[in-house]
Amino acid sequence: MNSNQAFYYRNEQLFVEDIAINDIAKQITTPFYCYSSRAITDNFIQYQQAFAKQDTLICYAVKANSNQAILTTLAKLGAGADVVSLGEIKRALTANIPANKIVFSGVAKTAEEIEFALKQNIFQFNIESEPELEQISTIATRLNKIAAVSFRINPDVNANTHAKITTGKAENKFGIPIDKARNIYKKAASLPNIKIQGVDVHIGSQLTEITPFKEAFAKVAELVNALNSDGHTISVIDIGGGLGIEYQANESIPKVTEYAELAYQQLASLKCKIIVEPGRSIVGNAGVLVSKVVYVKKGEQRQFLILDAGMNDMIRPSMYDAYHDIIRVKNSPNSSEQTYDIVGPVCETGDTFAKARKIATCQQDDLVAIKSCGAYGAVMSSAYNTRLPATEIMINQNQWCVIKDRPSYEEYINADKIPAWLE
Ligand SMILES: *Cc1c(COP(=O)(O)O)cnc(C)c1O
Question: Which superfamily, per CATH, for 3-36+284-413?
Fold first, then answer.
């Protein structure tokens, strides 16, 4: 079952697996995120099958959606985790993802984070700079641990994606410039308590073409050969994540099989273990954000559909100019259509989900679903405007469960402390 099969209309109602969203909305206050367990599972299994030809560890990129129910679903399927903070390591371990399937990425690993990761014996650190290498060596030596490391190489390729999610160009803050790579491996070999293990690359997110991957993998392969001839033993190639998803129908996105085949063609001869770090392509299309129309407002030139979900719940349109399909939860085949600016309640002009979007005519209190919100949705939410982050639920066939509650206003407000001088 792919995500189109997990989300479908039956009797004019939007269903997720075997449950009508409208029935859930009778019990849960909108807005809420709704994920399909089946869609997540199937997306993960697609990766497992596509990469079966090579020894591959699939490390789900936790930052895409770090809910414990999602991590636990993936852990049970054998997933590893790509983490970027101490908090994410703790999440992965709590979901029973074993430490030896955890890779630690990120440009700013602190001493505290490194120490924790070393004590847990994680699979590897993906190092992004020389000072980080020195820091890891120092801490590992003090703890009498060996740090298994890869270096994240910046291959200077253009991922042709949104500027805010491009990471593999020379001007980006990520990774080690590829022409400096051999020097840093040489340095690593000279430092105590460091075990050189691999090469890592991650060029960006929401890639919709295969060519940038091809260029990056080719550069990695060349580098691995050079490093091996320098006397290092490279046994792991981490190809990162970044495969895009369809946000609009008929977008042409490389298939996971095509992506895996490319990795096989370009890297199999190097006889390394492959790590792949998909985030968005596992969870993105497995979740929707369900929201209610608060008002339909007729402006001078435009009609506004004002939702009870805002940029604090889902920031992708304001942050990345992202396109998300928005559909009415009740789908009457003969319904007329209207063109709306679809906006949220937050006091920011940027709180806009879609401009001049034609969708089925909506009335006050109608439910809509913002599609493809499973990745970089809930995890990027905030309580701006003291709007409490949306509830998250998961559906599994004919069962559903709240997997994250909204905090109460009391909890949220009482987290602030009044200084003694005001008492
Ligand atoms: C964000 C990130 C990923 C996942 O990217 P997706 O586009 O969600 O697949 C993988 N690896 C690293 C290092 C990342 O920063």
Answer: Lyase, Ornithine Decarboxylase; Chain A, domain 1 (2.40.37.10)
Q: What separation in Å is there between the alpha carbon of 379 and the centre of ligand 1?
A: 14
Looking only at the bridges linking them, the beta strands covering 236-238 and 273-276 are parallel
Cα–Cα distance measured from residue 124 to residue 275, given in angstroms and rounded to the nearest whole number = 11
**For 318-367, how does the pLDDT look when each residue is reduced to its tens digit (9 = 90+)?**
999 999 999 999 998 888 999 999 999 999 989 999 999 999 999 999 99
Strand 399-404 relative to strand 391-396, pairing: antiparallel
Q: Best substitution site from 43, 83, 105 to test ligand 1's pocket, by max atoms within 8 Å of Cβ? A: 105
Q: Is 241 in the pocket of ligand 1 (CB under 6 A)?
A: yes
Catalytic-residue membership of 272: no
Other C-beta atoms closer than 10 Å to the C-beta of 228 total 14
Q: Is 278 in the pocket of ligand 1 (CB under 6 A)?
A: yes
Tens digits of per-residue pLDDT, 24-63? 999 999 999 999 999 999 999 999 999 999 999 999 999 9
Q: What is the CATH number of domain 105-278?
A: 3.20.20.10
Averaged pLDDT for residues 151-180: 85
Ligand 1 centroid – CA 46 distance (Å): 18
Positive or negative, the CA dihedral 22, 334, 397, 68 is negative
Is 200 within 8 Å of 150 (Cβ atoms)?
yes
Domain boundaries, the chain: 3-36+284-413, 105-278
What was the pLDDT predicted at 3?
Answer: 60
Q: Please give the number of the atom of ligand 1 that sits closest to the Cα of 207.
A: 7
